[in-house]
Design brief:
By secondary structure, this protein is of the alpha/beta class. It has two domains: about 5-230 and about 440-455, 3-Layer(aba) Sandwich (Aldehyde Dehydrogenase, Chain A, domain 1), CATH 3.40.605.10; about 235-430, Aldehyde Dehydrogenase, Chain A, domain 2 (3-Layer(aba) Sandwich). The chain has helices at about 5-15, 15-40, 45-60, 60-70, 75-105, 140-150, 165-180, 190-200, 210-220, 245-260, 280-290, 310-325, 375-385, 400-410, 445-450, 475-485, and strands at about 105-110, 120-125, 130, 155-160, 185, 205-210, 230, 235-240, 270-275, 325-330, 345-350, 365-375, 390-395, 415, 435-440, 450-460. Strand 8 (about 235-240), helix 10 and strand 9 form a beta-alpha-beta unit. It is globular, with a radius of gyration of 26 Å. The chain binds nicotinamide-adenine-dinucleotide (NAD). Nicotinamide-adenine-dinucleotide binds next to helix 8 and helix 9. Nicotinamide-adenine-dinucleotide binds near residues 191 and 362.
Length: about 475
């Protein structure tokens, strides 16, 4: 049905990153030209676009699971079905249900001084949106921004991660099978392509990735004044208040931590727990990890670390922490050896300090430091002394403790008494704050972020604005006295 996307040629011909980078302006020009020539798509066209994405996700779910698993070494098929396919399809269905309402012009109030004019806000497509996506949920994190972009009537150019090459290639192939290359195109490649991509004069750029690369992206985008949505990372804390059952908190925290082997932007990075409850928490975390993952190395539910470089990074954190005096508690119920495996032995870290890299960098793996606090206020101070996290998890049945935590901390989002599930709420915005990102997608906010909210004032045939033009006379003086006082 559609032409083969240029990106497909790029993949097939195995061009160098420099060559791909050189072709980017042409790809963008083609998308932009189509936007200008064809004008903003109506609701029916947008629904067709969204249905095509939904269909390609559903009818290729096994291929997607296989590609991601091959890229990771092994990725739990269930994790892919839940976090890549279900989350994306559920979001598409929600957008389709709400799109008509979102697209409607909004009537706004007109002050009596401008009566009887009319005010309206129109939601207009921006044009062409650039999307840079990471490897950890390589389908969902490319598709969800695309759903936002297309629901808002935009065309898109996507650059997925080079660390998941099979999935990136499949993404290009699937989108090329459903869309013309002047609707959506995919370019593959590494940082060199990413750098050239972020220098393009898009109408908006959605970047999902690390805070460090986010800084480069925003700097590059600034040259063309391209507005950015930055979906970044950081250290997301889990706070257990003393009133909450430790066993329940442990189950929900370790479940969130070990999903995708901790390679999740909103995985609980570390836990703050009252000092008297550390031992009980460690025992519960061990018990729940053993129940969920009785074995690890050959267990299809336990996902590999995406790349040897990342495994080495995590091992370095652990070795350094141990060397500086932390105690490592492996969560390895069958006592398996991980040597030669792409998986990492999950591990708790006790006695971690700020001098250790495990407490400085986002962990992004199955390693969980447990930090004791004396007073719950100290736990809140710990969070507030550090960069604003992407997610925060508070465990308490005491309403005052929950409200105090919500009021006194600033984070991208919160799950109360659980981990990670706020991400999957279709009707809620998602995005970081400060070092964890800027802007939002998901929810209605995703549609709005990639639309121009255009305020339009419709002047009435009969109106009083002649008063605002010279020569100014007594009438305007009287009106100003009435409005402003003497
Ligand atoms: P990354 O920042 O290394 O790479 C992300 C993307 O940017 C890749 O496609 C990469 O090729 C590209 N890139 C690399 N250098 C670039 C440059 N100089 N200019 C432009 N693009 C460049 O991130 P990653 O390792 O793929 O993903 C992990 C990070 O992403 C973690 O920090 C995680 O927290 C974060 N993340 C955030 C969210 C979120 O929704 N906030 C979701 C998933 C992951």
């Amino acid at each position: 049905m559609s032409q083969a996307a240029v990106s497909e040629d790029v993949v097939r011909e195995q061009k160098s990153d420099a060559e791909i980078a050189g072709e980017l302006p042409k790809l963008l020009a083609k998308l932009r030209e189509a936007h200008r020539r064809k004008g903003p798509p109506d609701e029916a066209e947008r629904l067709r676009w969204l249905s095509r994405i939904e269909r390609l996700m559903l009818s290729n779910k096994e291929r997607i699971a296989d590609a991601i698993s091959a890229d990771f070494g092994s990725r739990s098929r269930h994790e892919t079905m839940i976090a890549e396919i279900f989350v994306t399809v559920s979001y598409i269905r929600y957008v389709k249900e709400n799109l008509r309402h979102w697209m409607e012009p909004e009537r706004r109030h007109v002050a009596f001084t401008f009566f009887p004019a009319r005010n309206e806000v129109l939601y207009q497509p921006l044009g062409v949106v650039g999307i840079i996506s990471p490897w950890n949920y390589p389908m969902q994190l490319a598709m969800a921004p695309l759903v936002c972009a297309m629901s808002a009537g935009n065309r898109a150019l996507i650059k997925p991660s080079e660390l998941t090459p099979r999935t990136s290639e499949l993404l290009a192939e699937l989108l090329a099978s459903q869309f013309a290359d002047d609707e959506v195109a995919v370019v593959t490649g590494g940082p060199e392509v990413g750098q050239a991509f972020s220098r393009l004069p898009f109408d908006h750029l959605v970047f999902t990735g690390s805070t460090a690369v986010g800084r480069h992206v925003m700097r590059a985008a600034a040259d063309n004044l391209v507005p950015c949505t930055l979906e970044l990372g950081g250290k997301s804390p889990a706070l257990i208040a003393p009133d909450f059952p430790i066993d329940t908190a442990a189950e929900r925290i370790i479940g969130g931590k070990l999903f995708n082997s901790g390679q999740t932007c909103i995985a609980p990075d570390y836990v703050l727990v009252k000092e008297e409850q550390v031992d009980e928490l460690v025992a519960s975390l061990k018990a729940h990890a053993a129940r969920m993952y009785p074995t690890l190395v050959s267990n299809p539910d336990y996902t590999s670390i995406v790349h040897p470089r990342h495994k080495a990074r995590l091992e370095k954190h652990l070795a350094e922490a141990a060397e500086k005096g932390a105690k490592l508690v492996p969560l390895n119920p069958a006592g398996e050896s991980f040597e030669g495996s792409p998986k990492l032995e999950p591990c708790l870290v006790l006695g971690a300090t700020d001098e250790m890299s495990v407490m400085q960098d986002e962990i992004f793996g199955p390693v969980l430091p447990i930090l004791p606090y004396k007073d719950f206020g100290d736990a809140l101070d710990h969070v507030n002394d550090r960069p604003r996290p992407l997610a925060l998890y508070v465990f308490s049945h005491d309403e005052r403790t929950v409200q105090r935590t919500l009021r006194d901390t600033t984070s991208g989002g919160v799950s109360v008494n659980d981990t990670m599930v706020h991400f999957a709420q279709d009707d809620m915005p998602f995005g970081g704050v400060g070092a964890s990102g800027m802007g939002h997608y998901h929810g209605r906010e995703g549609f709005e972020a990639l639309s121009k909210k255009k305020p339009v004032f419709y002047q009435a045939r009969v109106n009083g604005t002649a008063l605002l033009r010279p020569p100014f006379g007594k009438t305007i003086d009287t009106a100003m006295r009435f409005l402003l006082g003497k």
